[in-house]
Here is the input.
Amino acid sequence: MIFLVVYLAGCSDDFTSSQIPNLENKAVVVSHENIKTIDSSYVDEHTKSGWTLTFHDEFEQSKLSSLQWNKVNSGYKEHGRLHYYLPEQVDSSSGTLKLHVNKKPYKDFPYRSGAVTTQGLHEQLYGKFEIRAKFPSGQGLFPAIWLLPSNNQPYPEIDIVEMLGQQPKELWHVAHKNDGERDYKLTRGFDGSEWHIYTLDWHENELIFYIDGHEKFRTPNISNTPMYLWMNVAVGGTWVGDPNEKTIFPSSMEVDYVRIYSKNSDE
Here is the structure.
């Protein structure tokens, strides 16, 4: 079994600042199985331009692959969190991965949610990370797609994108170098509750964040350690706040595909 350290941090407009609250830091137990091999015949616009596909899932199977994904099973209440991550809140159907959020108590947690990681299954140094997804909106929901280091340290952390559910037209991209040391960008004009392609180009010297192929944020690289992917929906907390009577349950985060690439110049 792999013990993974979760640090969910929040991140803000077309400006940078360090005034972002720390949100979570908790050990979680996940599974570890053999890595799935990649189809070497796969071709797309990125492989044509010098990238090599190292991981992908189009979520076309009825069951999520345990060779590629860990389903998180954990709950923690630090910083006002209200959810418990359960494997049954995760499914692959109708061509998408779904992370479901329900207002249904589990133990002494009022909400259930879903989260997946590639820890121990796919961990990579540098590369292109591309995810097509849409997020649930509503007060108190906090969907995110992010990277954590394979050495089980809480930093550095790279948030490819995250969203406060009550502000679906504000999407955050964050580079957390250390506790209290971070750069970020808040992008407006895209509705996170609709489908978008979120891309991170992680190079040895810089991080470049895109939405639908449009560059939104560029900042110096903060990590030279292999990292793995997290995707989740948190509920409640000191930054996002608690759900209210207008928050719709059940809700779901959907992911159409995940594609990860490496480039020879970054190896």
